[in-house]
Amino acid sequence: MHHSPAAGVRRIDYFPWEYDPTSSEGEVQAARQLELAAEGATFGDGVFIAQNAAVFCDQLSIGDRSYVGALAYVTGDLTIGADCSINPYAVVRGEIRMGDGVRIGAHSSILGFNHRMSNDLPIHQQGTWSKGITLGDDVWIGSNATILDGVTVGDHVIIGASAVVTKDVPDWAVVAGNPARVIRDRRTETRVARERDLEAELDAFARRAREQAGDLLARCYEDGRFVDRPSAAAGTQEPAIRPWADAVEIADVLLGTPPPGFDAADLVRRLTTRQDPATGLVPAADLSDQGLARPLTSDEPLDPADGSASYHVLSVGYAVRLLGGRLPYPVRAVHELSEQEVIASLEARDWGAGAWGSGAAVDSLATACALNITDFSADLADGGAGPVYGLLGWLSARANPETGLWGAPQPAPEPRWLQAVNGFYRLTRGSYAQFGLPLPYPEAAVDTVLVHASDPHLGTPEGYTACNILDVIHPLWLAAKQTGHRRTEGSAWAHDQLRRALGSWSDAEGFAFAPHSDGPDGVAGLQGTEMWLSIVWLLADYLGLSDALGYRPRGVHSPDPLVRLAAP
Q: Which region ranges are annotated with the description Disordered (predicted)?
């Protein structure tokens, strides 16, 4: 039912959302805005200001398609974004900054000033002061709400009707009451639905991976030995020990058994035959039948902090444990190092240009100590600890409290934090994570890792590799054991990466190390599959969804400490 308006009452002033700039009202608006522009106001396209709105501003800027409704009272220094509405009878006064898409309900008060309240003068003689109010993007303020001076309202916020807002409001919050309190996060319902969908995807992925585990392992078994990738796709590959360790880890995580067709004891023999009895190090061995009998020769130098021999302490050491065995010999090359020798070696390293290599050296040294403690504590002096306490002490003393890392950033054109963050992962995996110890500066580390996570290089075919994604999620996952710092941002990154990772699986082939690369690393193989299965678990666990996978890595990328240290 429609009634005739009282004299001087215009429907458009009370229903400004009906405004059409191309109608005759457009000329009325042009005249109204011309008056205000003469006083310094600026307007975007499609702006509407009711004829009976009280607009007396020292400074006024209004973005496209925004409006001020009937009898609104608007004064002070106002910056209003696009698609904003100040509905009838609302009061907006003081120093106010609005983003885009702010909706202010009828009879609401946005008061960006306050009276002084000293007790030596009557209040009406003291004047006012202002901190100002900031309203983010996409904010809905219900009718009769009040926002007091000094408040910042985040993006995507809903303020309930009649709420009195006296303090800052975070992004996505719904607030209500007097004084207003956060009653929920708007993302909760969306997050729950997304998590349910993602849980279903994780369950389906894990089922598919388990069903195809035998095929992908068989695909990488050629001429009596495991190779990282089929030679037909990746080219000739030298016999190596790591593919055997990767095959053991993949079978363990997906099947809970040794690789199909292999006996655990025989695999332990194959993996440990070429461990050097004197040093305990493991070269990149030939595991063919002939290679098993070939002894080490003097032209195969083994450095406990460099080269493939040091890494194979990790891969072989963990694979043998998954098979129920252990290395036959302790890693004496590490155990016999003094703390002073280890520290001198670490001090001599270039932690700027060589942060990754330095972190890898720490990983290898610390893992050797962990294996010595768990498997040879009764055979070695000091229970097998060797230089581990000196190593950990040096690391704790040298961590940078501003970045949380040990390495320094690199200048362009190399991605600024790539070396340092990748080295941080290797270092903390072998030390703090492997021994169940807290990080020295977890919040600072999260800040730095998230800066690196936004580097565009990680999204390129060359940058999107198992190493680079693992080197971000493991630090975030590890730091989350101590702090919730920036967890929302980390979770958003992890969610996107998890969906991308699940989409990179190739049926019956597994994961490629660099799924989008056109080179050999873009061919699915054992190393890529072992690493990405662990990455998927870490991403899912960071999001609280890892139970949907039905597996938990137990090898090199195990989330559980290998050993917990006793007091020295």
A: 279-304
Question: Residue 73 and residue 88: Cα distance in Å, rounded?
Answer: 9
Kindly report, residue by residue over 456-507, the tens digit of the pLDDT.
889 999 999 999 999 999 999 999 999 999 998 999 899 999 999 999 999 9
Could you tell me which residues are beta bridge partners of residue 49?
A: 68
Cβ neighbours of residue 252 under 8 Å, at least 6 residues apart?
258, 322, 554, 555
Q: How confident is the model at residue 1 (pLDDT cuts 50, 70, 90)?
A: very low
Residue 411 CB-density burial (10 A; 0-12 exposed, 13-18 middle, 19+ buried): exposed
- The helix or strand, by DSSP H or E, that contains position 244, with its residue range, turns out to be helix 242-255
How many helices (H) and strands (E) the chain has is answered by: 17, 21
Q: Which contiguous run of DSSP H or E holds residue 111?
A: strand 109-112
CA-CA distance, 565 to 562, in Å (whole number)? Answer: 10
By CB atoms closer than 10 A (0-12, 13-18, 19+), residue 2 is exposed
Distances (CA, A) of 237 to 222, 225, 228: 11, 11, 8
β-sheet bridge partners, residue 62 = 43, 80
Distance CA 88, CA 96 (A): 18
Q: What's the sign of the alpha-carbon dihedral 28, 30, 31, 36?
A: positive
Q: Give the model confidence (pLDDT) of 390-416 as tens digits.
A: 999 999 999 999 999 998 888 876 668
pTM of the model: 0.69
Contact criterion met (CB below 8 Å) for 43 and 21: no
Tokens 């009649």 -> residue: 162
pLDDT at 567: 65
Instruction: Specify the higher pLDDT residue, 381 or 366.
Output: 366
Alpha carbon 406 to its chain centroid, in Å, reads 19
E strand or H helix at 98, and its extent? strand 91-98
Q: In the beta sheet, which residues pair with residue 74?
A: 55, 92
Q: What is the DSSP letter of 233?
A: H
From edge to edge, which strands make up the β-sheet containing 139-141?
Answer: 48-49, 67-68, 85-86, 102-104, 139-141, 158-159, 173-176, 181-185
Catalytic residues: 115
Per-residue exposure over 462-479, b if at least 16 CB sit within 10 Å of its own CB, e if not: ebbbbbbbbbbbbbbbbb
* Residue 137 neighbours by CB distance under 10 Å: 18
- Quick: pLDDT tens for 130-142: 799 999 999 999 9
How high does pLDDT run on average in the chain? 89
∠ CA 231-236-240, rounded to 5°:
95
SS3 309: helix
User: In angstroms, how far is the first alpha carbon of the chain from the final one?
Assistant: 87
Mean pLDDT, to the nearest integer, of 102-128? 81
Q: Round to whole Å and give the CA distance between 360 and 291.
A: 28
Q: Look at residue 176 and tell me whether its pLDDT is greater than 50.
A: yes
330, HSE (Cβ side, Cα atoms, 13 Å): 21
Residue range 79-100: average pLDDT?
96
Over pLDDT 90: what percentage of the chain? 77
